[in-house]
Amino acid sequence: MQAMCYRRYGEPEVLRLETVAKPTPGHDDVLIQVHATSLNAADAYLLKGEPAIARLFSGLRRPKHPILGADIAGTVAAVGSRVTQFQPGDAVYGDLSGCGFGGFAEYVCAPAGVLALKPTRLSFAQAAAVPLAAVTALQALRARGEIAAGQQVLIHGASGGVGTFAVQLARSFGATVTAVCSTKNVELARSLGADHVIDYTQEDFTQSDQRYDLILVVNGNRPLAAYRRALRSGGRCVVVGGAIRTILTATLLGPSLSLTWGVSIRNVLAQPSQQDLTFVGGLLESGEVVPVIDRCFPLRELPEALRYRAAGRGRGKVVLTIF
Ligand SMILES: NC(=O)c1ccc[n+]([C@@H]2O[C@H](COP(=O)([O-])OP(=O)(O)OC[C@H]3O[C@@H](n4cnc5c(N)ncnc54)[C@H](OP(=O)(O)O)[C@@H]3O)[C@@H](O)[C@H]2O)c1
């Protein structure tokens, strides 16, 4: 089979289209013919081997797993002897970031427990845009953010992969949603159902009188004290991503800042979850949530796709199509 491989850490140029052996499923695994896959921040970090401490897991001198790619959508080609949930021919999707990646290839093996049936309403390209970003948004809003109907929720970074799902999911939970993004993405955020949209190039939400029950920091670059100002007493700030300083402060100092400030500062480290993916699948099937695809590239153009995403031009997800 063909796969985009990296044999050393570096920039997108180190990726090469190679012919490699097709993987064989273990007893609990499913072999999937991949039709589409999408890019996530994790692919870019692993490609560069950054932060350096992560090389303890990904390989000290060179990458242990030469094929990146967490999100996949495809057709089941074979199943292991103990798999009962899926059968050859099923259309499935899933996030392989917890089981070795490998999605930038014509075939990949994954434990059945990380997959779910693809919503029939979605194309393979649309389905590949979903798993990691949507489940991250769900876990950030529901498990960490304790979102509830009627709450005022602000999403800082509403226009990327995670943010576009977060806006729609927050709406589906009955919250009043304020989306924060740059000028070029204001219409997109509105089209996803945001009740209010703030263009951060024109307005600083931390300086207004509006207070929020929950702030989701998706692409956040403000100090935590600024988010605290925009929270009502007892409100919650959940940090998903953005500036490394904000993420580290929330992770290391979140519990003590929460005690001092009278609000809750939390981070989220999303985990692949079949249960959460199935929950999102229901909303996708009903049309309440739709994946936003910015651009599709063929697999062999992965380096160009990574550069496009890194330039910050992406709105929603960047997808690779394979067959
Ligand atoms: N904690 C977790 O478990 C977890 C899981 C997944 C992702 N993450 C993190 O969450 C964050 C969002 O991920 P994502 O996949 O949604 O991001 P994304 O799709 O790359 O977000 C793209 C959007 O970010 C904004 N942006 C502004 N400056 C940018 C720049 N210099 N480079 C790239 N984008 C820029 C742009 O919107 P505007 O122009 O509207 O600002 C762009 O449309 C990342 O930091 C990622 O590492 C964390």
From TrEMBL:
- What residues does the Enoyl reductase (ER) domain cover? 10-320
Q: Report the domain of life of the source organism.
A: Bacteria
Q: Which InterPro entries match?
A: ADH-like_N, Chloroplast_QOR, ER, GroES-like_sf, NAD(P)-bd_dom_sf, Quin_OxRdtase/zeta-crystal_CS
**What GO terms are given for molecular function?**
oxidoreductase activity; zinc ion binding
One Pfam match: ADH_zinc_N_2
Q: Which SUPFAM superfamilies match?
A: GroES-like (SSF50129), NAD(P)-binding Rossmann-fold domains (SSF51735)
SMART domains registered for this protein in UniProt:
PKS_ER (SM00829)
PROSITE patterns found in the cross-reference section: QOR_ZETA_CRYSTAL
Question: This protein is called what?
Answer: Alcohol dehydrogenase
Species per Swiss-Prot/TrEMBL record? Candidatus Chloroploca asiatica
